[in-house]
Amino acid sequence: SASENGFVGTVVKTVEPEDSVEQFAEYRRLKNTMEQMMMTGVPNPYFTVHDSVVSDTTIVDGQTLISFASYNYLGLSGHPAVSAAAADAVAKYGTSVSASRLVSGEKPIHGQLERKIAKWIGVDNSILMVGGHATNETTIGHLVGEGDLIVHDSLAHNSIVQGALLSGARRRPFPHNDFAALDRLLTENRSRYRRVLIAIEGVYSMDGDFSDVPSFIEVKKKHRAMLMVDEAHSFGTMGQHGRGMAEYFDINARDVDIWMGTLSKSAASCGGYIAGSNALIELLRYTAPGFVFSVGMPPAQVAAALAAIETLEKEPERVQRLRDRSELFLSLCHEAGLDTGDSEGTPVVPVITGNSMVALRLSNRLKGDGINVQPILYPAVDESAARLRFFITSEHSEEQIRFTVARTAAHIAELGFDSKPAAMS
Ligand code: PMP
């Protein structure tokens, strides 16, 4: 009866049941956005099928395009030594380790890669996980909880936000790169929380700017917080040898509590890592759900990342070449009067169109010129921040870069006139 259920005197609100995805409001919104995109007459820019390694070029529909749409920053995916190492590992260990590493999935190359990454960065040890996104989610979700605070950069990657939500800790974003605002926030709030985790990125993947890690270290020390730096886009690209933000700023890597990175970009593989103190890694090895209850990283992925880092050790000039090409791309954009937002010489250079329609049309026109670049549209960014995002690689030639910036500037000059305002929003 109602009284047994404790509902006497209360108004029970009934809701329409939804038992199929077609009914979900979020599904209808998605369909609506797709229809609007179709109405522009520009082909769907997502899930383009690429028939080759994507490096300075790619093959789409049998056509070779200059590509600026992959994170193969150092051209190591497709490098013969890296591919051969992956093939050898498959021959020796098979395609799966078929168990969590705790159980029977441990191979010698797991430990080798973990020690390699730790040494590369300059900390005690590291731990591999099967995905970069999963690494952030499970690690952040696990290290803080109720009674704790996580403060993250307002532009932090989805995986950081998801980890924070999973953790159950209080979550507060702070204005992008603003360590002074973070300092004020912690001055007011630190005393209410047991642990405080500050999460930032090295290089920001939408804007191509980077964080002032030494200043964040000062703030974290002052407030007895822990600092986590996501090096997805700085591992392999920042610092003279590509060792990341610690090398770039010439700081003691141990001053950052948690270094996170993904192996899917410069390291030409797939999977993520956490690097830091012995205690941190030991705790995660025995207790992090996404590690303990998940299969070990597959042999091919481990061997590829190991070979990629070894290749980079032998050929550090790749990093310098990447920097030269990135700076060339950026300075040519500036000369052409293009809006590159906050990009500062990293291999990520946005060209902001301020309008999703223009971004979509621009990417389509560039495709006609033989150039592959991804538009970033509302709602991924604010409508006024709609853009093309160029990822530079060490393999791009100066000629490819000059041609691309020239074509982009030419199309923007034209599209600026016939664009329709904010059609995608
Ligand atoms: N962190 C950042 C900052 C990223 O940009 C990404 C992916 N682009 C990830 C984590 C997740 O890495 P992965 O794609 O290897 O899962």
TrEMBL record:
Belongs to the ATP-dependent AMP-binding enzyme family. This is Long-chain-fatty-acid--AMP ligase FadD26. The lineage of its organism: Bacteria, Pseudomonadati, Planctomycetota, Planctomycetia, Pirellulales. The chain holds residues 689 to 1113 of 1113 of the full protein.
